Amino acid sequence: MSEKKSQSKAEKLRYQKKTVYEKAGEKIVREAYDYAKGYVEFLNASKTEREAVVEGVRIAESAGYRPWNFGDPMKAGDKFYYNNRGKNLFLFKIGTEPIENGIRITGAHIDSPRLDLKQNPVYEDHDLCFLKTHYYGGIRKYQWLAMPLALHGVVVKQSGEVVNVVIGENEADPVMYITDLLPHLAQSQVTKTVTEAFQGEKLNILVGSRPLEGEEKDAVKLAALNYLYVTYGITEEDLQSAELSVVPAGRARDVGFDRSMICGYGHDDRCCAYPSLTAIIDADETVHTTMCTLVDKEETGSDGVTGAQSGITGDLIDEIARALGGNASAVRANSKCLSSDVSAIYDPNFPDVFEERNAALLGCGVAMSKFTGSRGKSGTSDASAELVAWVRRCLNEAGVVWQTCELGKVDLGGGGTIAKYMANRNIDTVDLGVGVLSMHAPYEVISKVDLYESYRAFRAFYKF
User: Fold this and answer.
1) Within 13 Å of residue 17, how many CA atoms lie on the same side as its CB?
2) Do 122 and 128 contact (CB within 8 A), yes or no?
């Protein structure tokens, strides 16, 4: 008897991180596997931020959300979305309680590291045609070599006509490719640092080797341009007003004999964007005014008109407050935000860079980062203890499996999210999201149960 009491007391005193499989049970695991199917479809359809907005609008409209424009009236029960320039999306539902009680906000980003085409990308060299690129966000350049690649984006003609381009995803499509140096000739390359050996200016996309019949000068380049003209009606000059991105070709796949994980491009941060989006829709009965914001440009600093630093978020909160007769400053002061961004999962293949006690573990649920930044917490808003306690209570009462984490060892790690930009608006904010293996690689890995616990966490937050 005393042993049982002692064990019970020890369990009460000691914190022990446990997996979703241990804490939540088989029913939740089955639900997680089912939920992941919808996410994989979203991931496959959303390889750029523009495509993610299109999918987000489709999902929102199917749930009864209507487009909103500045100046439109709103009342309790209204469900709206605001599409900001095709690359930033807001969903919001007006609650029944006074707006000055604040808004429950989740914020995720829908851009991912990739290669973007330069404005004058097409050139020919030794009878091979290439496209010049400029990498977007933090990539490890060597990971993008010698693999099938696809081209996604838009070309806007001088007339204003928008041409959507996707090449390399259909089995009948050609793919693109970045060449690598054969090991037989790499003796000098392997003695260099990774930074020296793999340079951004050499990430050139191979798109052709056959000359256009009847042409002598730049005949291979002209053949590539002819393909774009015949297929999409665009010319080389049109590429100067284009946003074209090179991403890994192919669909996301299950990983593991147990199919417990998902490998795909763009988990960071679509594995947080999708749960945020579906949670606000499924938390339909909440009395609070709720908002899901999906932003662009996080991977490059959140600048620009569609990034988290844009004034659009504050403008939208001001409009909601005004329409409902509230004070916008009071609304912001009483609002709470979950910056739903990914965390790094402890990888036993690289233990030296992690501090195991404070690292996120795969399968242990949604991960909370009280602070981000780097080294001396530089560049972080560092959520208050009061907010963390409030979120603890919210998640625990909903039975959500969660964990705390930070990104690597103190002198090694670091990273940023949109949390500080939301906090700068006087909105209490903390990071909460899915843990990722191989973050920023062309193909990243997440756990299905961590994905589902993130959805359950966001839904609980909207309702709490």
Assistant:
1) 16
2) no
Judge whether residue 2 has pLDDT over 70. no
At 376, the pLDDT band (50, 70, 90 cuts) reads confident
The reported pLDDT for the residue numbered 3 is: 46
Fold of the domain spanning 14-112+265-463: Aminopeptidase (3.40.630)
Closest CA relative to residue 271, chosen from 360, 345, 340, 339: 340
The three-state DSSP-derived secondary structure of 90-158 is EEEECCCCCHHHCEEEEEEECCCCEEEEEEEEEEEECCEEEEEEEEECCCCHHHHCCCCEEEEEEEECC
CA 202 to chain centre: 27
Please, are residues 81 and 96 in contact by the beta-carbon 8 Å criterion?
no
Q: What is 35-48 written as a DSSP string? A: HHHHHHHHHHH-SS
Span 125-173, pLDDT tens digits = 999 999 999 999 999 999 999 999 999 999 999 999 999 999 999 999 9
Structure tokens at 44: 């496959």
The span from the CA of 263 to the CA of 266, in Å, is: 10
- Single-letter amino acid code for the residue at 119: Q
By the 8 A CB rule, do 168 and 47 touch? no
Report pTM: 0.94
CB 261 within 8 A of CB 255: yes
SS3 207: strand
Kind plus residue range of the DSSP H or E element containing 152: strand 149-156
Tokens representing residue 9 in the block: 């007391």
Domain 114-248 is found in CATH 2.30.250.10: yes
Q: Which residues pair with 446 in a beta bridge?
A: 262
Handedness of CA 396, 399, 400, 405 (dihedral sign): positive
Question: Residue 134's Cα: distance from chain center in Å?
Answer: 20
Boundaries of every domain in the chain: 14-112+265-463, 114-248
Q: Which of 368, 385, 370 is nearest to 433 (CA)?
A: 368
The residues facing 104 across adjacent strands are 290, 336
Q: DSSP E strands: which ranges in 249-311? A: 253-255, 261-264, 289-295
Q: Which of 104, 103, 107, 105 is nearest to 331 (CA)?
A: 103
Pseudo-torsion of CA 432, 438, 443, 447, nearest 10°?
-50
CB atoms within 10 A of CB 269: 29
**Nearest C-alpha neighbor of 450 from the set 387, 403, 396:** 403
> 10 Å Cβ neighbour count for 125?
10
The enclosing H or E element of 11 equals: helix 2-13
Position 1 scores a pLDDT of 44
d(CA 285, CA 272): 22
